[in-house]
Amino acid sequence: MRIRRGGLIALTGLLFWMLPGLPGCNWSSTRRSARDALSPEKAAQARVLGEQAQHAVDAGDLATAETTLSQLVVVAPASPEGHQRMGSVLLLQGRPDEAEICFRKALELDPDYAAALIGLARIDAIRGRYDSALKRLETAVEIEPHDASAHLALAQVLETVGRVDDALAACFRALEADPFLAEANRRIAIVQLARNEADQALARLDQTLESSPGDAEALYLRGRAHLALHHVGPAVDDLRSASQKLPARPEVHLALAQALEAARRPADALQAVEAVLRLSPDDAEARTLSERLRR
To answer: Residue 83 burial by CB count (10 A; 0-12/13-18/19+): exposed, middle or buried?
Structure first.
């Protein structure tokens, strides 16, 4: 049985695609056509290259990952995994046209390769072709019904097109496949916060942070949940930590400023709101808060 979920690399932006990185290649689990094409020496070389590529991705060294995956594709040209992983790295670098070629090559080698379908759906979504993205993701879910990443990717596009209830259902299906999938829990919590269900969001985010204590997004969301529930001290603690981990996110600094204002710490709140205005000078909410704090 092929391990498919390992081919997906994280991509931020467009409110989604913040998914886990790709584990090292398991070349012994590829289909017979690809496996038979490799000598034991080539298979060992492919395995090492796959692991090196993963280490580079984990370290944020996408140039090295690309170079290593280029070697991997030469060593194992008949394996769709190498092409799919190369596509993911190229997409992560903002090169969708080149990535599309790689994903299509992977599907040429294996038409049922769900990870490559997800990759093409990511490109469709980036280009605003949401109907096409949904069709590809629905096909991926049919092929791999127990793959959490396929359900989560579907949820993310459904959310983008405004089908929030369907997106929630897809998130819950992702959690059935992988109960520890932090991104699914975060997305559910975002909807719960928007629906003024802060207590439910807080319980979900507590669970997420138990398994992933350093999850900056979960800290930010839990801080917002605490603030909505008037838990001012915990809100400040979570949002302070989140702002240190996500220094370029104005909304995180704004939430911290609001929590500090609620904690009756106007000087600290003003410092936080100034960070918002440095990042987003036209933020109307931050300007209003700044004026109020200066009175």
So the answer is: buried
